[in-house]
Amino acid sequence: MFLCTKCYDNAAVLARLPSPVNLIPVQNGFDAALEGGSDHWEGIASFVSECSPLRTHTRITRAGRLHLGTRRVNGVRSLQAPVTDGLERIACLLRRSALFRVTVVPDILPYKHTKLMYNAAIGPIAAVAGLDNGQLLSMAKARRLFFALLRENYVILRDAGIRLETIGPFHPATVHRILGRKLIARALAWAFYPSLRGSYCSMNADLPLGRTEIDNYNRYLIELAGDRDCPLNRRVYELVKRMDRELIPPSIAVLDQLLL
Predict the structure, then answer these.
(1) Which residues pair with 40 in a beta bridge?
(2) How far apart are CA 44 and CA 96, in angstroms?
(3) Tens-digit pLDDT profile for residues 151-192
(4) Which CATH code of 3.40.50.1970, 1.10.1040.10, 3.30.310.50, 1.20.1260.10 fits the domain covering 110-258?
(5) 2-107, what's its fold?
């Protein structure tokens, strides 16, 4: 059974499931309730889909892959770990749909952490400002914060010794180097802008309702950083939680609170 809900709905879903059940989470965020005490399967999607409000219908707005693999809770994660026949069979069934490409990997965490690096930068900035993903690149103030948060996310993961894999055209280390060169980064931003215009991150619709996955995104990164500096993540987290709690409407002016 695939779990594709938002992380804040996990508790309600888990309470309704029979036990035991073979659950394969496909979520961008990290939820300790799903880790359990043993190895299990997980998925991470590098494609982008848009869900119609209050309907179980989605459309893929940006092509990509569904990665399926094992998440190792205990012991050392190994690239040489065997992939079970069961996971391969599931992948074969999904490939028949031809909606997206499916890749089975021995360790899902390098892909999930890479996706988190992006989502924990895109989601909060776009949501608090009320921007679509294209505007995140076209508006100078938003772009500056997005790039800064993306670089901070990479440093947190790198310094924690977490291995990252490629999702999209570039490896995260290459993205970090590109963002350090302002002219190149700005040129690539305009190159990606047309394909992102009119698409929205999932947190964009959630924030006005007073619920987000900020704990599963940026709070996870803050805890991972520990005593190391991550000032922008801390400001973003506090701002989203306050807007969440007080139902403050998104606006571009809110971004000024992050420009310290």
Answers:
(1) 71
(2) 18
(3) 999 999 999 999 999 998 899 999 999 999 999 999 999 888
(4) 1.10.1040.10
(5) Rossmann fold (3.40.50)
